[in-house]
Amino acid sequence: MNVPNDDETTEMHVERLLGRALNSFDLPDALVTRLDSALAHASSLHSSHHSAALHRTTYRHTYLLADGSSLTLWELVHNTGRDGHEQHELYVDETDVRLAASRLPAGFTEPEDDPAVDLDADLEWLGTLLARPPVPASPMYVPDDSADHARRVLRRAENEDRPGEAVAARLRGAFAHHIKQVFGRQCSVAGKDAGFTLYEHAFLLLDGSEMSVWEVEHTATPDGRHMCEVYEDEHTARDAMERRARVRGRVR
Fold first, then answer.
1. Quick check: 191 and 117 in contact, CB under 8 A?
2. How far lies 245's CA from each of 110, 162, 234, in Å?
3. For residue 33, how many C-alpha atoms fall within 13 Å in the half-sphere facing its CB?
4. How far, in Å, CA of 44 to CA of 61, rounded?
5. pLDDT digits (tens, 9 = 90+) for 125-152
6. What residues contact residue 197 under an 8 Å CB cut-off, 6+ apart?
7. Contact, 104 vs 78, CB < 8 A?
8. What is the DSSP annotation of 142-210?
9. Full-prediction pTM beyond 0.90?
C-alpha cells in the first residue's frame, strides 16, 4: 500500500480528510482514535456522476494501521449545496455512502412560468404513501457499531415527536443493524421541488429481539433545506410525509 502523494504524510492526509468533512463529528470516537495509528494510505475513485451543473463523486480511502489491520473510509464529494461549492462527507461503510448519495438531488427542471398549479395532480402520488408495501424478506443484519448508528439516527431527528429515551435506551443494546430504503420520490408541489425518502433502520438487540425506527428525509421546508425526522413506526412516518407534502402544497 503506497502513499499517493509524496508531499503528504498519512497523518496529514487523515487531518485533511477529517477537517473538510461536514459530518466528521458523526464518526465513532473509537474509529478516529484508530486512525491516529495509520502508517500508510491509498485513495481510489469509486464512482462518479455528473448531471448538468451538478456532480457527485465517491472515493475510497484505505489505511494500514500499526497493529497490522486496515480501515476504510468512504468520502462523498458533491456540489449540491446552496452556494454550489464543493462539500465533503465521510462514512464508515459503503452502504451508508450509497444512501447518502441517493439523497442528493439529481437535478431538477425549472418550474413553468404559468403560476396556476393543479394541486390535485401534484399530490396524486401521496396516495401511495398510505399503501402498505409487500411483506419484505427478513433483513440481513450486519454487526457494525450498531448502537452508535442508532444514536446518530436519533440525534439528527428534528421532529418534536421523535422517539424518546425509552427507545434510545433499548437501542443502546443493538449489536447489528440493517438499513433499507422503502420509499423515495422527487416531485413538484405547488410549483416547488421537494424530495421525500423513507428509510427503515432495523436493529437486532442483545436480548434477541428486533426493533425498527423509521427515518423520513425531505426538503419540504420553507427554504428547501434538507430535514430529517424519525418515528417509531412506519404508519406514523408515512402520515408525516403526507402531512408535510400537503402543507408545502398550500404554500403559494
1. yes
2. 19, 19, 17
3. 3
4. 7
5. 444 444 445 444 556 787 778 999 999 9
6. 102, 103, 181, 183, 184, 185, 216, 217, 218
7. yes
8. B-SSHHHHHHHHHHT---TT---HHHHHHHTTEEEEEEEEEEEEEEEETTEEEEEEEEEEEEEETTS-E
9. no
